[in-house]
Predict the structure.
Amino acid sequence: MNPYFGKDFLSFFFTLFSRVFEAFFKKGEGVELVSDEIQILVLMFTSISCSILGAFLILKKKAMLANSLSHTSLLGIVLSYLLMKGIFAQKMLTFNPALFFLASFFTALLTIFLTNSCKKIFKLHEEASVGLIFTFLFALALLLVSLFTKNVHLGVEAIMGNIDIADSIDVKLSLMIALINLAALFLFFNDYKIFCFDETFAKIVGCSLVFLEYLLMIQTSMTAIGAFRSVGVFLFLVFLTAPYLAARLLSSELKKIILYSALISFFSTIFSVAFARHLLSVYDLALSTGALSATCVGASYPILGSALFIKKKILRLSYKEKTKEKKKEESFA
Amino acid sequence: MSFLELFTDPLSRGPLIATLFMSISTALVGAIAFIRKKSLVAETLSHATFPGVAFGLLASFFFFSGNDLILFYLPLLFAFGFAILAQALVEKMLKEKKSADVSLCYILSFLLAIGVLVASYMQHSHVMLFKNLQIFFYGQAATMHDTHIYIYGALSLLVALVALIFQRAIKFSCFDPLFSSSVGIKSWIMKGTFSFLLTLSIVIGIRSVGVVLVTGMMIAPSVVARAFTKKFSTFLLASSLFGALFAFLGYIVCYLLENGAESTYSVPIGPAIIVISTLVAFISLLFAPSNGAIIKQMRKWRFQKSCILENILKFFWKTPCQSYHLIHLKKKQFASFSILLFALFKLVKQGYLKKEGLFEYRLTEDGKKKAAYIVRLHRLWELYLIEYLSSEVEKVHQSAELIEHIITPEIEDKLTKLLLNPKVDPHMQPIPIKEVL
């Protein structure tokens, strides 16, 4: 029985806190996770991974390449699925670490290699080579799917994700990805930093640029495929870009940006899960939680931006009034 | 059934002709986007049309109670509006000094998220509308009928007309913005025309190949056309023709797979078109006659080969009567072992060298003449450098070493005339006289 059933926005948080409290002090009982908590956890881990990667990707101007990876991850999944099916006679596309890693490596290596060679060998410009490769690989994936499943159209879930059916496996998967990304952040933070800001310096110091590029892309494709089941490969792009843009308004220091963007997307996702529950129980409106959280995270940038803008205006107004009063006083004196 | 009958058969003509119209207009606009290096803008706009379609469907349901005709047109109108909105938002972000890359990606994903949110609302409450929406996501050419032909035909005609009218202006503003503004072409008009064309072609495209794949329809034909032509007007024309050709091929492949004798696969048309066109694009990038990668590489190899052959001949010419063993030649480091063997084989076949025992070679009479001619070119060039370009004597050898492989007989004639048929080169070596080969 889901204890969040029929709860509105405020009582959702009340229930959440009481359950966390309970789980914390009654360790022996083993409180079982319910769907809302699973959603919060999955989204939280995904948003941590995305905030880490988003900062580097955007600084490196590779956000559209991440978009390309999010398309081609479908091919990675299909190919590795076919391979696993051929080798181990697997039937179901269940969670499987080997499958997952295989898919993300396939995706990243294939996409980056083809895009780079298009740029270097054929002398196409960046935009055209990115566009040519990812549409090709995505179309190939769709063709393979329709040939092997004899189903013309993939469900929207395959692209959009469906977090409402997420289970504890998804929590483990997203936790694993978040841990990998955190580990990479701690190990390679300085390398990534100079890779983003000063390639020449990185070369002089002896960083392998190729290695860093591929590592970043493998991490990205891992995160994209991890998000495949929860928020979908396209909406994960919102988690990449919007928190960074919002955090950039608050700070211009890389470490702080990563921290702020993780916090921003974390709070927006919790808010959105509670909001989805509120809509369901009060207005009887069933919305996809993944899409709602993506919209909330995406909206965080314009909301924060306009809030800062208004604050600036108010400050300026009050400053003007103060100076006016001062002038009046001076003139009286 | 012959392929011509596909155009008249009431079941197949809808998808086929509408897809042809669509691909002509997307390929045409894609070519302009390719030249302007804005291919990925199409990606953002196409994803941004998705919430537009969703809102359009909802609006037509709520305000016009699901009138069929309104249901047909309103989503397209809303999609157009949302694409324009997306462009305005991207412009706004660019003005705030965000990079094009992140603004495109953010607007794309944020608008798509809104679209998916609306879609998830429709999924439970308006199942029929949701089915309509899904068509626009992956595209569904197979269910198009005559009405689609008329509407998409008219829209594609509009795109082609606008492109035709503005062709010269587009050309100028693409290649030389400064010149175009000095001629009096307003840059905001050109920007507006371009974004109008882009938006319209995407709106045309989303019904048959879907918002996810419409970008693919734009890039591949222009890549193919670019490989074969350099002139702008031919490029636009070729791109749209290639677009039509690929669409036709994709349709035929799907048709054959579906109605094949052994097994029936039902394959979506959009992905088939894109896979075919991208494969053709790869092939043409590799083998295009003037600037294909492999052709270029082969030209390079051929030149390298002729250089090696001529260097070997020159080496033999120094002591014309002596025969050399392969090992000895290897020590002179003309090339690696296998290439050297191949070169010697080639020279023997051409009759410049003669085999004397196992891996022993000697120069023939023809070979002597050929080698003498190369040395003549070398020394003529050295003399020319000294006399006319006043180079220093020590430095001319390197340059002549390179240029001797390039000089054609006509240039040699001219050099001879210019230098008054000289007999001695700057290093006091005799210049071999010209002999008929």
